[in-house]
Each structure stands twice: as C-alpha cells, then as structure tokens.
Amino acid sequence: MGKPTVHDIAREAGVSLATVDRVLNDRAGVREKTVARVRDAVSRLGYVRDLSAANLARQRRYRFVFLLPDTTSQFLHALHDAVLEATAALQLDRCDIEVMHVSVGDPVALMAAFDRIEAAGIDGVAVMASETPVLRDRIGRLKTQDVAVVALITDQPNSERDHFVGIDNVAAGRTAAVLTGRFAGGREGKIGIVVNSMMARDMVERRIGFDRVMGEGFPNLTVLPTMEGRDDHAMTERVVGQFLDSNSDVIGIYCAGAGMRGLTKALEDRGLGDKLIVVAHDLTQHSRAALESGVIDVVINQNAGHIARSAARVLKAQCDGVDVIASQEKIRIEIVLRENLP
Amino acid sequence: MGKPTVHDIAREAGVSLATVDRVLNDRAGVREKTVARVRDAVSRLGYVRDLSAANLARQRRYRFVFLLPDTTSQFLHALHDAVLEATAALQLDRCDIEVMHVSVGDPVALMAAFDRIEAAGIDGVAVMASETPVLRDRIGRLKTQDVAVVALITDQPNSERDHFVGIDNVAAGRTAAVLTGRFAGGREGKIGIVVNSMMARDMVERRIGFDRVMGEGFPNLTVLPTMEGRDDHAMTERVVGQFLDSNSDVIGIYCAGAGMRGLTKALEDRGLGDKLIVVAHDLTQHSRAALESGVIDVVINQNAGHIARSAARVLKAQCDGVDVIASQEKIRIEIVLRENLP
DNA sequence: GCGGATATGATTGACGTACCTCATTTTGCC
DNA sequence: GGCAAAATGAGGTACGTCAATCATATCCGC
Predict the structure, then answer these.
(1) I need a surface site. Which of A35, A104, A139, B316 has the fewest CB within 10 A?
(2) What CA dihedral angle connects B329, B330, B334 and B339, to 10 degrees?
(3) Which fold has domain B169-301?
(4) A16 CA – D25 C1', rounded, Å
(5) Could you list the residue ranges forming a coiled coil in this record (chains A, B) (predicted)?
(6) Which residue's C-alpha is at the least distance from the C1' of C8?
(7) What is the per-residue pLDDT across B180-198, written as a single tens digit (0 to 9) for each?
(8) What b/e readout covers A28-63, taking b as 16+ CB neighbours within 10 angstroms?
(9) Could you tell me the fold of the domain covering B6-49?
(10) Rounded to a whole number, what is the distance in Å from the CA of A105 to chain B's nearest CA?
(11) Any chain A CB within 8 A of the CB of B325?
(12) Which of A2, A52, A297 sits opposite B55 (nearest CB)?
C-alpha cells in the first residue's frame, strides 16, 4: 500500500473528508475532540500532505522578494546574477522571485520598500542591509503577517528573521589571518588591512577575527590600523598607495572589503604585483583575474550562487512549514587559490 | 493570463487534446506534419509541462540506486550517511533511493548488481567504482534502457555516463601542493606522499597534480616516492613510521588517500604532531579532530553531502529531461583549515 | 425537550496531466 | 473508387488536494 491520503485519514479517524480537510487546513468549525481524533489518525498513519497536489489544487505560486542594496560592487553584481539564475530555475517550482534594489542606508526608502512588499502580499523576503532598530522592528511586523524573512549576507541577529544566509565573518577573518600568517613563513613585517568602512558590521567582525589570530599565532607580524576605501576604487587606490609608500616593510595586505580594483592598481603600479601576500574577499571577475595573474594569493569567498539558492530554498521551506537540510544551508567560507578556482 | 496548458496547445495547434498528449509523451500514431504543428505551438506559447501535475497523474516515483564500494573508510561512511540524509529529504519529491554496497573490485559481483538494477526497473544509478572496460560497457547497456547514470567520485570518462559528480583530482593535488609549498615558506626539506594504492586513478591524478606544482614552484622541496597504505591503518602507520625514521629532514606529508588514523598515530608517537606540515584529504570525524588538535594543517575536502544531493538532483533532472544548474552541480575542492571548519 | 447555534457529512468541481476507449476522419494503395 | 490502415477526435476517469455548498446531526442553554 502506498502513502496514506486524506481518504485514509478520514476512514481511520471515522470522520468525513470535509472534516479532515477543515482540520488539515486549520479552518474553523471543528470541535477540539474531533481535531484531536484527526491529528491522531494523521500521526498514526504517518500521513504527509502531498505538497504538489495541494499546490496544484490551490493554484499556488510562491512570491519572494530579494531586497538588495542599490550600491554597486562586483560582489553585488554576482549576487544579483545568481538570484536571477535561481529565479529561472525555481520558475518550475512555482516560485516567482523579484529583485528590488533599494538604498538600504536610507530608512525612508527601506521602509517604503517594505510597505510595498506588505501591500503586494509577498510570501517571503530575503533582505541584505545593515542592522538597525528600525529594520528590526519592521521585520517583526512582517512576521506577524506570516511573511517568511531571511537575512542575507549580514545577519539581523536580534530580529525575528527565520534564518541567516551568510558566513561567519569572524571566522572568515580568522581564516584570512592564518593564511596570511602561514604564507609569511616566519618572516617579520607589517600587514595592512583595507575595508569599506568600519561602520559595517561584517568589516568589524572580519577585523576582529583577523586580529585575534594574528595576535595569538603570529607575533612576527604587525597588523597596522585599518584603511577605509569607502567602496570606491579611486579612494582605495589612494589610501593603499600612501600606505605602501610610507611603509617599507609591508609583506601582506588583507582586503576585507570592496574596492579591489583600486588595491590591485596600487600594487601593480609599484611593481608589487607578486611580491606581497594578498588575501581578499569574494570571487568576482576581477578577483579571479587577479588570482590567476598572481596579484592576489587567496580569495575568501562566500558563494553567491549558493547564497541565492539557499535563501530561496529556506523561504520556500518556511512557507511550506517544512524542515531544511541544515548542512546544505550552511554557507561555507570558501578558500580559493589559483589551483582550485571553480 | 497564466501559464499555457495542454488545452491552449491543442487550440493553438488546431488539434485535439488526445493528439497533443500523444505528441508530448512520444506516443506513436501521429503524422510528422502534425507533430511539427504541435511542437510549433508548444514553442510559440512557451509551454512547459507542469511536472508535479504530470507526476501526480501518473503516480510516478523515481527509483535511484547508489552503488558504493563495500570497503569501509571514514569517507565512505560519511558519504553513506549523506546519501541517507538526501534520501529522507527527497522522499517528499517522489524519490526512493536505495544504497547498494558491492565489492566493486569484483567484476562478477558488480555485474550482478547491475543485473539486479536492470531487472528492478530502476530509473537512475550513481556508481562509485574504478574504471574498467567491463563497467564501461555495462553503463552503455544501461543507457540503452534509458536508465540515468552518473559517475560518483571517480569518473568513467569514456563511458556514456550522463554526468560526473566529483572533483578534479589533478587540481586537488595541485591545491595540496601549493598549500604545502607556501606553508613551508622557503625552507628546504623533503615531502612524503601517502596514498592507498597507485592502482587507483584518483591517487595517480592527485600525485600528478602535486608533483607538477612542486616541480614548477617549489624547488626547495623534494618530493619522495609514494608510500602505499592500502586502505589500512596499521599498514599506513608502518610505512609512514619507517619513512619518518629513515629521513631526517622531512618537513611535510601529503596524505592523498585513506588510512589517516595510521598517519596521525605515526606522527604523534614521534612527537611530530604539530611539527610537520600535513595536508590530507576528506573531512571526517577523525580528520576534523586532527585539524582541531593541529596534527593536520589542511584538509582538502569533497563535500559528501553536496555530492550525494548533487547526484540525486542530476539523476532526477536526467529523468525529467530538464537542465541542471551547472554551477550548483560543480563539486568544489574545499580547503578546510581549523579556522573555517564547518 | 425545544430552538438555535455549531459540527459534521455528503457531494461536487476544480487544478494540469496521463492514459484509456471508441468513434470518426483522413491517408495511401491498388 | 474502394478498402484497409493509419491518424485524429471526443470524452471519460484518475491522481491527491482544496474549497465550496447544502443538508443533516449533535450540542447547549433554557
């Protein structure tokens, strides 16, 4: 005998199909005692609702929104592409995904986006934005409307988001540090760090992890104060250039944030292309090229494709009230060398 | 208007539902001209068959077999667990997965397993076994029966398998080499290599990749002849022990195969636990512990969970005649340090 | 034990596809 | 032009679930 159906439940519980349906779909008008009888039959027979039949019957489509910053960076671009790819693939699974680019630093614009999401009756939202009280509250409000919410890249730890899709940035910083330290092989020297801005939580966390490992494991290396590139190539090039010109014994640079083109430019202009140990974040067109040419030694990557698919899967699972495979949804800190470039 | 249905196709093509059905399901008895008319309408309207409705109607279940070696190793154990986990998750997607453990070195037993698979009317097979002409032919025969076939871990490059789920072992060897070399930081010394057996293609490939990078990039390091551990802890411990005792200036070991427990035992017994650079393959309970304690420095991993899920997804896509997301099915060469342990 | 509210039953028609039967039309061939 | 074979049409039932209607049964307070 195959999987039990609603008919089997009805028979087993001694009620009619209509009542089973009312119970399964949480409709009113059933006595508690009867509800219990049905629930009992469900667990006794091990009934699981056939989701595809259910979705077919109710003509269901899942509507998700990916809320991304409107700033541009190669990583964001890659993420956007990855979401589009996932969108195409999930079309067959009744999912409609829309990408909204919003000035996430602007609370008014951000809230307006959420208003539109709420008004449109969206089933789930993946939001990438830095943590603010306003956003936290807004996520709470979405949850009261039964909208699934996942935090993307940057966690919203004190909010009611259902899930975080991204990496542990402290661990990423530690990973960058240990690679830098071991590649240095005992030599003494200085290490520079470039970030977008120390206002961003991810950057701070990476720096914390980096410093901790450096302090514990590599006393031969001196980590210098953070340079801020403000997401801008020219700016990054300038600060890194000044840094290189005024420090003679630099042996490595950790680029925890964007602006990588400025960094490589500064290095190449000084003929340091393959002299320094350079660890950077996120595999993009540019960092891939720099890895291949040897300007960058290691890329610490959070896989954009994996992130996009994972977010979509988690949102769908949340809507369906189904468990996810934890290990599949764990975003790994990928270490990419020229030799294991995908 | 929503997605087009078979009714729309029938109307658009000016034929009846029955004919559309015959065309879509490749049934006989339709003139070529009519087939073309229907196909035309399909592409004109952008019709895609609703797979869940179709599967519902035909009460379809996908039956897959994972054919794994009956030898035991921690990696195989992890893979087995991963397949079971995937099985549970895919239960909801109408997939029944069975794991068969077979003595893959024994052609008779292997062929018997294939016979059973063929007789049982299985929809797809994921096979992990070394490449032989017998196996190649058998895969070809399966393909004539419309059974989906993927090669697992070890490719069957000249067979008609639909897909290979695993890593590029030459690249893995290169990756191991560059990490060993850079961790050595210019020091001179000897590097030992441990494998199961040089009969296995994966081992040979890893060794090739390792040697090439070492030869090109690290003239300060001397790679010594391969030690064969034959998948056995005691054996591995003995050969590694002898190696360590008779070579004074060993600074690193690359463990390309199984038997890791023997390796770590040999190292620890000589107080070399954290003295040597040790690069090993595959994240298991044991290698995780060794990584945490510092005996092993790097694990090159092929993610068992990813492999199991990917194989199942590819088999299903093959049965459905659907494309896979290439980037999702690319098994990455993971570099695992203590700092980025998942 | 009556009346009104509340629970439950019985039934039906979707959803999009598969697959079957039987009738009818068209085709190819001599 | 006639005939068999092939192609097509028309229609129905099924898959498991949802959602609705309407009739009937059971409950509760008085």
Answers:
(1) A35
(2) -50
(3) Rossmann fold (3.40.50)
(4) 13
(5) none
(6) A19
(7) 999 998 899 999 999 988 8
(8) eebeeebeebbeebbeebebebbbbeebbeeeeebb
(9) 434 Repressor (Amino-terminal Domain) (1.10.260)
(10) 30
(11) yes
(12) A52
